[in-house]
Amino acid sequence: MRASAPELDPIVEHAAELKAVVFQHTWLKITGNLPGESTPMDFAALAARHPRASLICGHTGGDWEQGIRAVRAHRHVAVDLAGGDPVAGITEMAVRELGAERVVYGSDASGRSFASQLAKVYGAAVSDEAKRLILAGNLQRLLRPILEAKGVRT
To answer: Which of 24, 36, 61, 108 could form a disulfide with 40 if both were Cys (CB 3.0 to 4.6 A apart)?
Structure first.
C-alpha cells in the first residue's frame, strides 16, 4: 500500500519507539505508478503524521526535483540518491534545498552500477564535507540511536 495509508501508522510509530530508521521506496512515473507504489507526496503525508520518526525517502522520488520539494518541509526526512542515472544537479539541488545533513548515498546495487551512483556524489559541485556526510556521516548518525539502544558501540 502507499506510504500515505493510515494503516501504516502503527508500524511507523513502533519504529520511532525503537529508534529505527524507516526507508520507503518512492517513485513518480509519467505513466502512473503501480498499485500501492508510493510517490514522494505519499511519503510526505506519512512524514507529516510522524514528526518523531526517522525517515528516508528512497530514490528521492525518482523525479528528484519534485521529490525533494515534496519532503522539504519535513526536517526529519532524508532523501537517498539511489536509482536513476547520474544526472547533473541532483546532489546539488538536494544539498541546496534540504541541507547536506538530509542527503544519503544509496547504491541501488541490484539495478545500477556503483560507479554511476557514486558519480552523483563525487561529481557534484558540493563541499568535501557535504560529500563526507552524504557518503557515510548521515547514515551513521541516523543509525546511531537504534544501534546504541541495542548496546552496539558506535
So the answer is: 61
